[in-house]
Amino acid sequence: ADNIDGLPPQTSVAAARYDLGYIYLGEEKYKESLNQFEKSLNAFRKVSKSDDEYVSEKIVPDLVLRIGDNYLISNNYKKADQYFDEAIQNKYANFVYAMYQSAIIDGLQKDTDSKLKGLNFIAASYPNSEYADEALMELGNTYDAIGNSGAAIAALNKLVNDYRNKSTLINKAY
Description:
Elements lengths: L12 H14 L3 H15 L8 H21 L3 H13 L5 H14 L3 H14 L6 H14 L3 H14 L7 H4 L1
Helix pairs in contact: 1-2, 2-3, 3-4, 4-5, 5-6, 6-7, 7-8
């Protein structure tokens, strides 16, 4: 079935693999999910923007993030970061999510300075993103973990003050 030609991109084998990747992801079968997402991405990368804008603007960016997520879940931080970096460099939809995940990876690799830099950048540069409050919460937790209670309090106060009626993390910040 992989070599069926002539199907529109959104009804192709690559699209079926994309859907199957999500099914496996929902079942927490990460190896199978990753396999399907990678095959789908490889096929969809051959679709030009003029052939199908939805594929190039929505599906490919989502695939890049899901592949990064699968590698992150599998503790393959180097590969995860490669995909998140692609999303960031191309400013794909949800690239701020990729920035957040990249900062988390920095922390998992014991690079606390890079983690803090990434989280601070998100909070300062993308305050209206859906990850700004999470970045502030993680900043507070990270500063607390390294014994910088003043910076932890400042980050959590910013979370409470700036996202009072917007974030579900407010109660955790108290």
